[in-house]
Amino acid sequence: MKQFLKYFLASLLGSLASLIVLFFLSIIIMVGMISMVSSEEEVSISKNTILKLEFKQPVPERSQFGDINFSSLMSGKIGKDLGLNDITANIKKAKDDSNISALYIKLDNFNIGSYSTIEPIRNALLDFKKSQKPIIAHGNYITQKAYYLASVADTIYLTPTGGIDFQGLSANLTFFKKTLDKLEIEAQVIKVGKFKSAVEPFIVDKMSKANREQVSAFMNSINIYLLKSISTSRNIDDNEIKNISNNMLVQSPDDALNYKLIDNLNYEVEVLEILKNISGRKRLKTVSLKKYNKVAGASKPQTSNRIAIVYAVGEINGGKGSESEIGKDNIVDAIRKARKNKNVKAIVMRVNSPGGSALISDIIWKEVELAKAEKPFVVSYGKYAASGGYYISCGADEIIAEPTTLTGSIGVFAIIPNMQKFFDNKLGITFDGVKTGKYSDFVSASRPLTKGEKAILQKQVDTVYKTFANIVGVGREMTFDEVNDIGQGRVWTGLQAKEIGLVDEIGGLDYAIEVAKDMAEIDEYKVLEYPEIKEPFQEILESLQEDISAKIFSTEITNIFGHYSKALKMVKSKEVQVRLPFEMEVN
Q: N or C: at which end does the chain have fewer Cβ atoms within 10 angstroms?
């Protein structure tokens, strides 16, 4: 009887605890839902308002709900983080908004990670200037990426005691070879393409000659384009701007002023007074980009015509995928829905991917082929459209890239770790077993590859490469030899890719949509985005089956150890991969 009571009470207490947790979670969710609904209400602004742009957060391809955690739920701050799509749309809206008298770019804590993301915003600002409304920029410390955006402004101010970076581009790659040596782990590499250097971090401790050649080529391509753009915007001679950058002549705020990179040295409080005078108000009135997003724009055309935008963002892996990962399910379903929707007259696929699984890339490519057979299919490239990212899109009717997009990387590889010595010498673990056939334990991390296994893997990799090159050849109307000459895993910028025929035009997503509209022979349309973005609380409810506490309270370790986690994913995969040769940020 005592045992019965003991277990009964324990069970009762457990049930009560669960009910209490669910009760409080329900309250938190309700508070969040109420705040979210109120945050989506339309906003109005008064005359002579100045639109303020700040970029303190990374900019995703499209607007999406921010991370849902305990803090955001309790504070009720679960609004959307503005994506590239809405940022450019709002600048376009401000151009024709009579209530907006000027645009102010605050350059501090600039956090847009790539020049390919900055480019569409910069182009939107150039278009805004046609309205004759001034663009004013100010920073206490201006990074090179922030300056590239600000260079279109009518006036750039820098704090007198501040700083500015302008010394050319650099990029550092991370190598794991010495770590693997210490752990007595051998990375067994099978690849095709002398430039396919995704495997280099695991087998050497510095860049190979071929890799250094390709990185130098595309870095110089990016640098020349950026300097040319700045030269044009700031009316500085081409050779002079190169000299300033190459020799780091700007080392102080006074240098920046003397070399005409900026227009004046002022504190922000002084710039705010200048903005007040521009607006003609006694009291300065500004509106943030996030708030301005809720201001009604021009009425949309009354038409059933739709242009579908399919966002293919992130590494290409199996599974259902997400906003930041291309899975088999999410992108295939998205393309299929766009193809079957009778109101969709054309499809634009926005690709921002360094590649990944060759198998999933091929499955997505096939879906693109089916869609292209029924309606115009245009591709727009973001930061990356390399390897698998190029594979899935090379058959499109038209490919449009940003000037600084990294694309191509037509090559294939597989990495199989041999961890026998690590297990034996470091952990004291050994393995033994039986098998019914010569290759029953094909590809095992607990021993070296046999000669026969290496031959099989090489054949698989060669086959995938030939398939990849042939698919590119059909899509781009090239022979295998022509593709092979520009393939071999080599990475190209968008500008270089246009010269060699891998892309058709240089431009952004807006231009790709216009191309799709013309191909579909329609005048008016509305945009339809795929995959659909789930409401945040739909995601919470779906995740209740998994582990709600982990979803709300946990911290992603991979955010801290990004390079390590991605490298680990590569060596753990048993699939043949079509992936960009490096994890690199251009600074």
A: N
